[in-house]
Structures are given as structure tokens and as C-alpha cells.
Design goal:
This protein is mainly alpha-helical. The chain has one domain (26-136). 73% of the residues lie in helices and 0% in strands. It contains six helices and no strands. The chain has helices at residues 2-9, 27-57, 60-67, 69-83, 90-120, 127-136. Helix 4 packs antiparallel against helix 5. The radius of gyration is 24 Å and the shape is elongated. The termini are far apart.
Length: 141
């Protein structure tokens, strides 16, 4: 549709004239390229986070519990953007990356606290221990 409007407004030389073509560039092209780079770096960082967590915890199930917080956090962030501005920009993508890091850090801290309760305070891995560990990290309102 956009090409038809441009063609109607601007007369291009005939098809037989070599060297003439239409390209779209500028800010839109730069944003598309930046979005692709951020997507590729996000996938790479997700794989690296998994590797680092495996070296730290050595349990795939715990790593997946921590990493599952990232998509859940992103769903909430997209919902907030959708209800407010409705525009996902490069700045909001950078905010998503920061939010993913904070979510990952909170999960690691929580799992380490559970390990601390089991190792140094004699707790067994149970629902009571998880509730206690979670309440220890709740911030007062």
C-alpha cells in the first residue's frame, strides 16, 4: 500500500532506465537492525546465563526455575507497555534487558537463601522452608 502511494506522488523513470530503484532507510532501517541485534544478543545471553547457572548450581531443575522468571517478567512488562503507551522502542527493549537481569538476580538470591537455610540452619527442603525463606526476603511496605 505504501509503495502505491509513493508511486502516485513521485514519477520514477521507466523500468528500462538502469540505476534507479526505491529504498527505505533512515530511522526505520536503523531501528529494525538494532532490534535484530538486541534479539540475537538476548538469545546468546540466555544461553550464557544457563551455562553460568549450571556451573553454580549443577541442577537443571533449579536453573529452569530461575530462568522461567525471565519470560514471566517480560510478559508483565509487555502488558504494562501495551496498557500505557503501546509502543515498544529501543529504550523499552533496554529496560527489558535490565528487568531480566534483576529477575535473574532475585531468583539466584532466593535459591542461595534456601541452600543457606538447609545447610546452616538444619531445615529440610519442604514447603515450610520455602515459605520461611520467601518471608525472609519480603520487603516491608
Amino acid at each position: 500500500m505504501m509503495f502505491c502511494r509513493i508511486r502516485a506522488k513521485h514519477r520514477l523513470p521507466s523500468k528500462h532506465s538502469p540505476g534507479y530503484f526505491v529504498t527505505y532507510g533512515g530511522q526505520f532501517e536503523a531501528q529494525q537492525q538494532t532490534t535484530r541485534v538486541i534479539g540475537l544478543l538476548s538469545i546468546t545471553s540466555f544461553v550464557l546465563m544457563y551455562r553460568i547457572l549450571f556451573n553454580l548450581l549443577h541442577v537443571h531443575r533449579l536453573e529452569m526455575c530461575i530462568l522461567m522468571n525471565i519470560p514471566l517478567t517480560m510478559i508483565r512488562a509487555v502488558a504494562v507497555i501495551w496498557f500505557t503507551t503501546g509502543t515498544i522502542s529501543i529504550a523499552s527493549l533496554m529496560g527489558f534487558i535490565t528487568l531480566a537481569g534483576i529477575s535473574l538476580r532475585n531468583g539466584i538470591i532466593m535459591i542461595n537463601h534456601y541452600f543457606h537455610l538447609m545447610k546452616y540452619e538444619g531445615e529440610t527442603f519442604s514447603k515450610i522452608m520455602m515459605v520461611r525463606g520467601s518471608l525472609d526476603h519480603c520487603s516491608p511496605c
